[in-house]
Amino acid sequence: MDTQTALLTRTSHGALTEPAPSAGALNQAFQAALRAPDHRMLRPWRYLVIEGQARQRLGEYFLQAGLADNPQLADVEQQRLLKMPLRAPMIIVAITTFKEDAKVPFVEQTLSTGAAVQNLLLALHAQGFASMWRTGWVVEHTLIKHALSLQAHEQIAGFVYVGTAATPSKNPTLLNVTDFVQTWQG
Fold first, then answer.
1. pLDDT class for 66, splitting at 50, 70, 90?
2. What are 45's strand-pairing partners?
3. Does the pLDDT at position 171 exceed 90?
4. What is the assigned CATH class of domain 12-169?
């Protein structure tokens, strides 16, 4: 798939199934992620790949975090938390690893991680895989950060659920460029 097609056809997929990317396909996607804009080559990102039984353990941590916040959490919500990581055969945790640098503020490092994740999503899509970038309260929760061994200078940028689309892709609506782009005259 050419770059323009990948850019214009990638969509998020909530329903994902096997197969997940092979090691080779995943390596290719990570190579694309590592080409993100990166001022001063700080490389302010890292990734965790979660598959198999580790997804169930992640669900248990989601449940522990939910119960820590609300000990009266309804059974249906507890089951939902346990099953969240099972929505895809693979989860990639994108992590921003902030580096102290006088010329590169943390916001720029956050943006670099976002660009890296977008490259990852596009590379997976170009290889025929589907994905969903998810955030929410779990990315901020101390218990989840601890379970994933994040350091004090790190932040979860998102959980990228990866697999094969279980349903056909929707044709994305192309937006009217003029609604978002203006020429500045000074």
1. very high
2. 96
3. no
4. alpha beta
